[in-house]
Amino acid sequence: MTFGGDELGLQRERRRLRAVVADDDEGMRQLLAAVLELDGWEVRCASDGDEAVSMSAGYEPDAVFLDVKMPGSDGISALRRLRESESGRDCAIVMVSGSDDPRAQSAAADAGCDDYLLKPLAIEDVSKRVLRLVTGASQRVE
């Protein structure tokens, strides 16, 4: 069973997609990782923004999911640092938040996020939405 459908199956045949999931809530990290892994993604998890930025270096993720509010380095700060780094410059970055605060959404957009998901997540849409954001996925071979 795949949440992303046939298009994701085609991407998977070409190469395995990689994601970093950063959230201070372990349950949310596990949920996002499980959804992505069911669709064939290779997933690494981080508990804060600093860890997500460090983890992304050298891993070359296709997508990074960042919770907006985390202790230490929050999602917006991590987003800015990722966009300035080689590993985060071209990947899809998706902010995840339990708040629909337009200021946070605006700050995320200004910092370069590609999508903004509100909790609770519609899990059937996660892989499909992020796959549309991943560019050049068929160009790299694992």
Number of beta-strand segments: 5
Question: In what order do the strands lie side by side in the largest sheet?
Answer: 2-1-3-4-5
Count helical runs.
7
Structural class: alpha/beta
Radius of gyration: 14 Å
What's the SSE pattern? HEHEHEHHEHEH
Strand content: 15-25%
Overall spatial form = globular
Low-confidence stretches: 136-142
* Helix percentage range: 40-55%
Distance from first to last alpha carbon: 23 Å
Outline the biggest β-sheet.
5 strands, parallel
Ordered list of secondary-structure elements with their pairings:
Blueprint: H1 6-14, E1 18-22, H2 26-38, E2 42-46, H3 49-56, E3 63-67, H4 75-84, H5 86-89, E4 92-97, H6 102-111, E5 115-118, H7 123-133
Parallel strand pairs: 1-2, 1-3, 3-4, 4-5
Helix pairs in contact: 3-4, 4-6
Can you put this structure into words, describing what you see?
This protein has 142 residues and is of the alpha/beta class. Helix content is 46%, strand content 18%. It is built from seven helices and five strands. The chain has helices at 6-14, 26-38, 49-56, 75-84, 86-89, 102-111, 123-133; strands at 18-22, 42-46, 63-67, 92-97, 115-118. Strands 2-1-3-4-5 form a five-stranded parallel beta sheet, with helices on both faces. Helix 2 links the parallel strand 1 (18-22) and strand 2. Helix 3 (49-56) runs parallel beside helix 4 and helix 4 runs parallel beside helix 6. The protein is globular and about 40 Å long.
Key traits:
single chain, 142 residues, 5-stranded parallel beta sheet
Q: What's this, in brief?
A:
The protein has 142 residues and is of the alpha/beta class. The protein has helices spanning 6-14, 26-38, 49-56, 75-84, 86-89, 102-111, 123-133; strands at residues 18-22, 42-46, 63-67, 92-97, 115-118. It is built from 7 helices and 5 strands, in the order H-E-H-E-H-E-H-H-E-H-E-H.
